[in-house]
Design goal:
2 copies of one chain form a homodimer. In chain A, 42% of the residues lie in helices and 16% in strands. The first copy, chain A, is α/β, with parallel strands linked by helices. The first copy, chain A, folds into 2 domains: 186 residues, Response regulator (Rossmann fold, 3-Layer(aba) Sandwich); 129 residues, Response regulator (Rossmann fold). In chain A, the strands form 2 sheets. Chain A has a 6-stranded parallel beta sheet, with helices on one face.
């Protein structure tokens, strides 16, 4: 679907060409496409490389003759169970997807895969006709497999694919992370804060990158320094570590923009540990408006993002693709500021 | 597998008999067994009823000719996303299952289904050759579908199937909930507590039933009254409601045995709301030793259960069944008391 529709242009590469480039038989390519468990990891890699090079798209009509519809949709989450269960963001997205699929004939097939990239067996499973389509969240920019999955079956991403692995034909639902972050930092500036650091998520995730850009936008517009950055990992422990590093390196810090409420919850603990008051000494703005925003001693001012709505729209977009419709390639959801006590 | 092995006794019912009893064609029964999406819900129900009545087990060798191995294992969780993500017990079980499957060729296919019983589409999916086996947790006693799933494919339960839907050939991993609960209540009795209420989980779940029995065992052995019971639902909000009801009905209450840490976390909040001190006025023992045991103002004394280990053993047992081995039908894991400040 790199051309963005279910129809394919004339002159597309054939299965025979894939076999020739890969140096294997036609039957072997067919086995890879149909996910036979009898393909070795080496052969799988060679054939996948050839498929990627040629931008080969299996003929859906031909496939449907050998592989019946599974009536199942994968949700691929390249995170370990600890992080998946630890961040309420995922619960909201899954709830939204489930709600939308309840009105369909499809079941949800949740695939927790290894952080950063799926294992070989998961790749084989997803390419093997076991699901009719896939939803992908929490993907990382280095993951070429997930980025190219849209060549083999209908895929909708939650959050735009990043960098060199993005394809023009990708379908994705995103949150306006950059504008949301900018709004949060503008709020801190309006409250008179001048030395505003940020705690980001991993550098290979679009939500991290965009929220950092929004933080930078607001500081630049206000003529303030945008040099205080600590890298977090979207966990509470990571928020604690990053905050301790920031306050120790920058004793003049008077505000923090933190890229998730879970990390901001860690920031609250770390500031308490250092004897700093929130918001008197250090003001905080988080991101999510998750249950963590109201769980600590100080209510978090935060940027609310519609995670459940993202799940609904992701599922809806995929169902439309599976029904042969042409949904928009990109849907962007808005955020808004929720004021509490921390800023 | 109602006879408890992968081999079947002679004279077992045939597909033809199922068709005769159901009043449908042989091809229709075959479609049901192979999960064709073209079977109506009515026909599915009639054929499933006939399969259950005859205790029919599809011939595995014959099936493998038409349905290749999927190399995937379902984890069926009949809970909504809110409860699944809200209780750290599930995160631990999933982590354990994932850890064990990492060393296998199988992928984990997580199926969140409707509370109390899977939807028709999920039933069809599970019976339709889309998974090679299933793990089931958080099942409820009224769920005849999940209880009979073991007739159609290898199934391992986390927690024993309850009551009239239990089959002698079931495979399950359980925690010694009754002994654990008894140990927790004995601890309260040893601390001089005399009016000890309990907050249970749902009445249709084995963990709830067994923990209530253990509470009763300890009170009976100590000659104390076992009349103070409030029904909870394994959520924090349910723990708050049940605690308020108990302290309002029984002002002399001096201790609570709560069947999960998440509910006990709610109990702490409710007691604070009523101005009661923990443990001075009311002592609490929870169950799980989850992160909630250490999250509140007062550390919870609790019965630790090995949830991650349960996941590991469930997956291991299913892998052994899939490999044609004969693992034990029942494995029971031990619990132990963890003392903190609440009792």
């Amino acid at each position: 679907m790199s051309d963005g529709t279910l129809a394919h242009p004339m002159g597309r590469p054939t299965l025979e060409e894939v076999a020739r480039v890969a140096g294997v038989s036609r039957a072997t390519v067919s086995r890879v496409i149909n996910g036979s468990p009898r393909v070795s990891a080496d052969v799988l890699a060679v054939v996948e490389k050839a498929i990627a090079e040629l931008d080969y798209v299996p003929n859906r009509a031909a496939r449907s003759l050998v592989a019946r519809a599974t009536m199942s949709i994968a949700l691929v989450v390249p995170e370990d169970a600890h992080r998946f269960f630890g961040d309420p963001y995922f619960a909201d997205v899954v709830q939204g997807i489930s709600d939308r699929l309840d009105d369909s004939d499809y079941v949800l097939n949740l695939q927790l895969t290894h952080p950063s990239s799926p294992s070989e067996k998961t790749k084989r499973y997803l390419l093997g006709g076991n699901v009719d389509g896939a939803l992908v969240v929490s993907h990382h920019s280095g993951d070429h497999f997930l980025a190219s999955l849209g060549r083999s079956l209908p895929v909708v991403f939650g959050g735009r694919p990043l960098g060199d692995v993005a394809n023009p034909g990708d379908y994705y639902i995103d949150v306006d992370n950059r504008a949301g972050a900018r709004r949060g930092v503008e709020h801190l500036v309006a409250r008179g804060r001048r030395t505003i650091a940020t705690i980001t998520g991993p550098a290979d995730m679009p939500a991290s990158v965009d929220r950092e850009l929004g933080w930078r936008d607001a500081l630049t517009a206000a003529g303030l320094d945008a040099g205080r950055v600590a890298r977090g990992d979207f966990t509470e422990a990571g928020g604690i570590r990053a905050t301790l590093a920031l306050v120790d390196a920058h004793p003049d810090l008077d505000a923090l923009f933190v890229a998730s409420d879970l990390m901001a919850s860690g920031a609250l603990l770390a500031l308490e540990e250092r004897g700093l008051r929130v918001p008197d000494d250090v003001a905080i703005v988080g991101f999510d408006d998750s249950p963590y925003a109201t769980r600590g001693k100080v209510g978090l001012t935060t940027i609310a993002q519609p995670a459940q709505q993202m799940g609904v729209v992701m599922a809806d977009t995929l169902l439309r693709l599976l029904a042969g419709e042409n949904p928009p390639h990109v849907t962007t959801l808005d955020t808004h500021l929720v004021e509490r006590d921390s800023a």
